[in-house]
Write a structure and sequence with these properties.
CATH class of one domain: Alpha Beta
Bound molecules: uridine-5'-diphosphate, magnesium ion
Structural class: alpha/beta
Largest sheet: 8 strands, mixed
Low-confidence stretches: none
CATH superfamily of one domain: Spore Coat Polysaccharide Biosynthesis Protein SpsA, Chain A
Number of strands: 8
Mean pLDDT: 91
Radius of gyration: 25 Å
Strand content: 15-25%
Length: 310
């Protein structure tokens, strides 16, 4: 098998068919040795029915994995990669925001430049609000400072990976998966290719600001222990300041005999310090929660059914 195409799908009933047609015209007509791996991530609409109808088509080899509930895109990607048998594996969304024609370009780059092991596509121009763009920039700056691996701004999951890269991704046993980090962590030589993102054919994006924030925190916790170090440093700095302040108060009282005054100062200090303490406990809690999840060692997803054609 030359190319496996992994497609995570969550409530994409109206996109599946047009997506397939586009893949047939842009990919299957050019590359015959291809398999499509659809992962139905517990959709609540008719995505499974649409996928079953597709498996009756014989233009492309289709494998479909259907989860017992929604486990998230990360789980869907893992299931897709585990089922991919191709020499190369592409990851693409089902909503047609990413035109399958770019997969041909990515494959060409890999074939012409054997020094590259993968190609990741990034959006040439982001169609998102300035506020979101600002927060995303902050996230990338922060995570790049905090981790030893480099996170490429804008690089998405839309990419083509060589067999070696897929095997490396699958060799990472963690349950809390953050693919952006995993793709960077495994290393290899990745070419970054710009592409023009299109608008979603049907349905809505599954992301909102809060989901993105949780995803960002998840990524930082999964790939950096710097927040823990930072909380220790803050604790140490506060301890040193408290000693200096205490000495100052004692000396001032001994020399000038001033009574200790300033209830508001005390109240604000207590608020400030307890805030910092809670923040640090929260940071530790994030790591603890991850250890808890990892130690339970539950499967990343549960398969309800699997079907394929040919
Ligand atoms: N997706 C998924 N599980 C989820 C959320 C999304 O498999 O829990 C799939 C979705 O069907 C789509 C891809 O992941 O094919 C990207 O999702 P979406 O379009 O919502 O993200 P965006 O393009 O806005 O980043
Ligand atoms: Mg999308």
């Amino acid at each position: 098998m030359l190319l496996s195409v992994v497609v995570p799908c969550y409530n994409e009933e109206n996109n599946i068919r047009p997506f397939y047609d586009k893949v047939v015209s842009e990919l299957c007509d050019i590359i015959q040795d291809i398999e499509l791996i659809f992962v139905n991530d517990g959709s609540r609409d008719k995505t499974v029915e649409e996928l079953k109808k597709l498996t009756e088509q014989t233009l492309c080899k289709i494998k479909a994995v259907s989860f017992s509930r929604n486990f998230g895109k990360e789980a869907a990607l893992l299931a897709g990669l585990e089922n991919a048998t191709g020499q190369y594996t592409a990851i693409i969304d089902a909503d047609l925001q990413q035109n399958p024609k770019y997969i041909i370009q990515m494959l060409d780059i890999l074939k012409k430049n054997p020094e590259y092991d993968g190609v990741a596509a990034y959006q040439r121009q982001r169609n998102e609000s300035r506020v979101l763009s600002f927060f995303k920039n902050c996230f990338y700056k922060l995570i790049n400072k905090m981790t030893e691996v480099e996170f490429y701004r804008s690089a998405s999951d839309f990419r083509v990976l060589s067999r070696k890269m897929v095997d490396a991704v699958l060799s990472m046993p963690e349950k809390c998966r953050f693919s952006k980090g995993i793709f960077s962590w495994i290393g290899f030589n990745v070419y970054y290719m710009p592409y023009d993102v299109e608008s979603r054919l049907s349905g809505n994006s599954k992301w909102n600001f809060w989901k993105l924030t949780a995803y960002a925190i998840n990524g930082i916790v999964a790939f950096s222990d710097k927040p823990l170090i930072l909380s220790s440093v803050v604790g140490l700095l506060l301890f040193i300041s408290a000693i200096i302040l205490m000495l100052f108060v004692i000396i001032k009282t001994l020399i000038f005999g001033d009574p200790v005054a300033g209830f508001p100062t005390l109240a604000s200090l207590i608020l400030l310090l307890s805030g910092i303490q809670l923040l640090c406990i929260g940071i530790i809690g994030q790591y603890l929660a991850k250890i808890y999840t990892e130690s339970k060692s539950r499967p990343v997803y549960i398969i309800k059914e699997k079907f394929e054609n040919k």
